[in-house]
Amino acid sequence: MPASTPPPTADLTKFLDPLRIPAVLRPGPDGELTVRQVSAEVRLHSQLPPTPMWTYEGTFPGPTIEVRRGQRLRVDWQNRVSTPYPALVGHVPQITAPPAENVPGIDPALLNPDGPKLPPWLVVHLHGAVTDGGHDGWTDNAVHAGRSQLSEYPNDQPAMTLWYHDHAMGVTRLNVLAGLAGMYLVRDEEEDRLRLPSGEFEVPLVLCDRNLATTPDGAPTGQLLHKTVGPLPYCGRYTLVNGVIWPHHPVQPRWYRFRVLNAANSRPYRLHLVDEANQRVPGVVWQIGSDAGLFGTPVPVGGTGLSLAPAERADLLVDFTALAGRTLRLVNSAPAPAEGTPIGETDPVGVPDPAHRLPDPEVMEFRVAPPADCAEPFALPAVVSPSFRRLSHDDIPHDHGHRMLMIHQTPETMFEFWEMEQVPEAEVPPAGTLRDGLVQLRQAGRPTATYRRVAREFNDRLNWRVMEDAWEQWTIVNLAPLALHPVHIHLIRFQILTRAACDTSAMDRTAGGTPVGRPVTWDTPAVIAAAEQGWKDTVTVAPGELVRVAGQFTGATGKYMYHCHILDHEDDGMMRPFTVSPMAVMALDPSMGPMPGHGH
């Protein structure tokens, strides 16, 4: 065992196994790929037996698909899964300390007998893709084994890190946990001109967490275990990077590029690079891009770390030049469920926190080689994307649309999306009225606005019909006292315009509204962090927070979804549809009606 490897903790030795790099798939001249969804046995750790999984092309994560901007790709996603559902599914009704889902194994009496009956009913969503609705992986359009999903991706998008994963209605959390996820990279000429580290020096890091079943004597069997406790979403004991539990990766004393994806069902990551003494390593990590493209300039990753909620991505440059011969660790300091609480520059990191579902903060280890004689060919660019521009409200066309979305938490700790419409002043009830689905909102110095709920469940009426090429501003207000929600909007990329803390004390969770005359209030918006000023497709909304995002619904049409990317929340109903249609169609189709929310 290498000297830098710590002794085993509980059951598996940390940093024992090397990081695996997924294979790369590139389309040929015909612009086509066949990707098979197949049963496979994957070794997650050398001290474990092989783990039965459902995979793309037999690996977990699936192959990294790589395309050029504008290179149209047609994928035949073939469902060839031949085995029963590979994970055990269980539930612990009461919260324990430490939280039960972090503890491997489960009482057989708590297993769900319907788990083994789950068929391989699968549909692929390319997360972040601008593609027509028929190719987006609509959640009800899953297919059984022996059939195919045919999808076309124009890839008319700037260089960015996308990913593909299963999106089947009601079972997304289980299908993704079984292994159905992979990375997808779009490249373009602007990225080429930067001459960023490439080849072996560009490394994908797909982060997720899993739990394992055990034998009667407590030894892990390698079989995946989807165990939740009470109302909490899934969090597993073991952190995996590229499908390996707590791996190590040898690096040269030079610059590297890391494409980081949080592919966990619900676990947040707040990542720090630390040294042998568990102290932060300053000044060596820079972020050059987020979910949907490159930044204008590099952003240093400081002592507060790199925060990634489920589905968020980060494009990083790391300078190991002055760290030759050192052993470094990547650690996670984010408690779960995330609340959006920041960490201080000098607060301890890399410390186990089992009470907050983080029994093992370790993610992976970097082993830096001794000094090399070769000169380093790369220098951090002062400008990353010359084409990038930061949006403000004044940059958006005057006639952009407005949508109001609220997050409600029921007394049973279930979370719901509420689509809201503004109530005309003449229809506002008398002061003191408390009505289900009626919420007032006021920004300091402005009149109170009254909203009523028009949808809360996935199959409620379709309300949001967007005109093709239209710009819209979506306001999301988290009225819930618990949980930070990563909200993903299909089809578009957007920028965050506003973050503001709200006083939600007037919200009556039992009644489902605010008394008229006692609105939810917010005052001065917070400064948007530099790492959040780029293009995104997933935005976090903390408890008691208002967030505004703006984007253009262009490049494709059809029926899409937005949803919370905590997959337990998505499967439990935090998902709603919207459509994008040509202007001429909307003008002539009487079922469309007037476009809601347009204008200021």
Molecular structure report:
There is one protein chain. The protein is mainly beta. It has an eight-stranded mixed barrel. Strands 15-14-11-17-22-19-20 form a seven-stranded mixed sheet, with no helix packed on it. The protein has a five-stranded mixed sheet with strand order 1-4-10-9-7. It is built from four helices and 37 strands. A hairpin with a 5-residue loop joins strand 25 and strand 26. It folds into two domains: 24-368, Cupredoxins -  blue copper proteins (Immunoglobulin-like); 393-588, Cupredoxins -  blue copper proteins (Immunoglobulin-like), CATH 2.60.40. The protein is globular. The termini are far apart. Mean pLDDT is 94; it is low at 1-9 and 596-600. Helix content is 4%, strand content 38%.
Q: How many distinct helices?
A: 4
* Assembly context of the chains: single chain
Strand content: 35-45%
- CATH architectural arrangement of the largest domain: Sandwich
Protein structure class = mainly beta
CATH topology of the largest domain: Immunoglobulin-like
Tally of individual domains = 2
Number of strands: 37
The poorly predicted ranges are: 1-9, 596-600
How widely separated are the two ends? 65 Å
Mean residue pLDDT: 94
For the report, how would you describe the main beta sheet? 8 strands, mixed, barrel
**CATH level-1 class of the largest domain:** Mainly Beta
Main sheet: which strands, in order across?
25-26-28-27-33-32-35-30
CATH-level-4 superfamily name of the largest domain: Cupredoxins -  blue copper proteins
Return Rg in Å: 24 Å
Fraction of residues in helices?
under 10%
Based on CA inertia axes, which overall geometry fits?
globular
